[in-house]
Amino acid sequence: MNGLYALKPWYAARLGGIRGALVRRNVSPDALTAAGVLSAAGAAAALAWLPAPLAALPVAALLAARLACANLDGALARDTGRCTRRGSVLNELGDRAADLLVVAGFLTLAPPSLVAVAALAATLPSWVALAGAAAGAPRRNGGPVGKTERCLLAVVAAATGWAVPVLIVLAAGSALTAALRLAWLWRELANGADDAPGNVTDEVTAR
């Protein structure tokens, strides 16, 4: 069920040089969170206003930057001793804002009602994971349509112009991902998961 999330350790290792440079320059983790949101906004603008397939390259580059910032902000916070509860909240809000901004880029390409459904569905997996963390269960991440897959689907739409089919896949896949996470969470809680809220994964304790 992890999907492309299984590649996260490999991806984090590739970002090691950038991570070290950011630590040496004393860059704020919050600045990286903000940069991730701005990258998502740029990708949304490119998707909305550039024709396919010309939109593919800028959308892919900006979403790659969005994912890199999402990976690096928490890592940078841990490396520099800036892990705070306020930063954790900012991290989650930034992720949700970035998700919604990317889906908003489809507003010029597809019916608004479908875009709204896809936007709602895109947030469901994270809400389930956060609810589980609040209840003391480990944070569940990954696919089949998690954050990385949603970015990939946006690139597919930018390259092909198939906005409506991509939104349908995004909405259905996100809903399925939320349902699978909820089923896992239900079993975990039934088995007496006793992890303390706020002490689960790097996504929750990022800053």
Topology:
Elements: H1 8-14, H2 16-24, H3 29-49, H4 56-79, H5 85-104, H6 112-134, H7 147-160, H8 163-190
Helix pairs in contact: 3-4, 3-5, 4-5, 4-7, 5-6, 6-8, 7-8
Describe the structure.
The chain is mainly α. The chain is 71% helix and 0% strand. The two termini are 27 Å apart. Mean pLDDT is 90; it is low at 193-207.
Helix content: over 70%
Q: What fraction strand?
A: under 5%
Helix and strand pattern: HHHHHHHH
Low-confidence stretches: 193-207
Could you give the count of β-strands? 0
What do the pLDDT scores average to? 90
Largest sheet: none
The radius of gyration computed from the alpha-carbon positions, rounded to a whole number of angstroms, is: 17 Å
Question: Could you say which structural class the secondary elements and strand pairing correspond to?
Answer: mainly alpha
Distance between the termini: 27 Å
Task: Using brief descriptors, characterize the structure shown.
mainly alpha, 207 residues
Task: Give a short overview.
With 207 residues, the chain is mainly α. It is 71% helix and 0% strand.
